[in-house]
Amino acid sequence: MEFKQIQYFACLYEEGTVTRAANRLNIVQPALSTQIKNLEGSIGELLFTRSSQGMHPTPAGRRMYQLFQPLLEEFERSKNQVINSHAELSGNIRIGVISSIAESILAKVVNEFTAKHPRVSLSITEGFSEALCDLVAGGQLEAAIINRPRTRLTLRNDLMLDEEIVLVSGAKANIDKENLTLKKVLGLKMVLPTKQHGLRKILDSITSSENLELSPVHEIDSINAIMQLVEISDYVTLLPQLALKGVNRAKWLINSIHSPTLTRQISCVSHPRRPLNAAVASFIEICTRLSIETHAK
User: Fold this and answer.
1) Nearest 5°: phi and psi at 55?
2) Are 189 and 230 in contact (CB under 8 A)?
3) Best exposed site among 17, 59, 96, 196 by fewest CB in 10 Å?
4) Residue 267 class from Cβ within 10 Å (0-12 exposed, 13-18 middle, 19+ buried)?
């Protein structure tokens, strides 16, 4: 049993097909198949069964992965620490972000990151939280910054920021600020993101838990478009504080809601079996810090 064989085995276990595992390892498929066959021969048990859908771990394969996966994670972390203590980071990293991050702090994050790591290139995808989670699970993204859902995720989920969701209105909206409860707010003329948007999923979950229902007049996924509509009309909306950073607040009225107070959490998701490399970890650290600093202003 060789360490390389264990690494190949873990990759095949995680990817589910020889094609994807070989691509990730940057080797040809026959070489991967040979190493897995040799590993099975050395332990005297089959680790995978093959079907038209891919490679499926046997009970022996699952047991072996559970034993070696923590060691492989620690090896990757230690390797990165050794390499990064003596060499400048390089390569490409693939990150996903939700729109409120993209429109508020992303430019600052990229600017600070590239000044710190000039040899690392970034591929950044903006999208809905659910779609970004699918891309992380499928290996197309190394990490994503999302609206943390209220349902349990299978991905690793690290909290970055906890913030209030507020009522935003323009000068033409007649808002009674007294006793501004959620039930009262839901009776206003409202524009919100569609049900595919991570923020909307959070709002639907909150209202459902209060035995209430969101019924916006219009649904628009562009936060910028929502803000413009609210500015020139009597529509109102519900947005997190971070989405309002950098805008001219003189154009809008911003009020807190109580009974209950509305909040959302921003978190970083990554694959539980793929440790983040040093470059991705640095990007997430900068993004987390700037999120907190911007929110506090």
Assistant:
1) -100, 130
2) no
3) 59
4) buried
Q: For residue 154, give both structure tokens.
A: 């299978």
pLDDT at 86: 54
Counting Cα atoms < 13 Å in the Cβ hemisphere of 149 gives 18
CATH architecture type of domain 3-86: Orthogonal Bundle (1.10)
Q: What is the pLDDT of residues 151-187, one digit of tens each?
A: 888 899 999 999 999 999 998 998 888 889 999 999 9
- Name the class of domain 163-263: alpha beta
Domains 91-160+265-296 and 163-263 are alike in CATH topology: yes
168-203 core/surface letters (b: 16 or more CB in 10 A; e: else): bbbeebebeeeeeebeebbebebbbbeeebbbbbbb
What pLDDT does 203 receive?
A: 94
Cα–Cα distance, 102 to 111 (Å, whole number): 13
> What is the DSSP track for 220-277?
-S-HHHHHHHHHHSS-EEEEEGGGGTTS-GGGSEEE--BSSPPEEEEEEEE-TTSPPP
Cis peptide before 260 (omega within 30 of 0): yes
Spans of all domains in the chain = 3-86, 91-160+265-296, 163-263
Question: 106 in helix, strand or coil?
Answer: helix
Residues of the chain below pLDDT 50: none
Protein fold of 91-160+265-296 = D-Maltodextrin-Binding Protein; domain 2 (3.40.190)
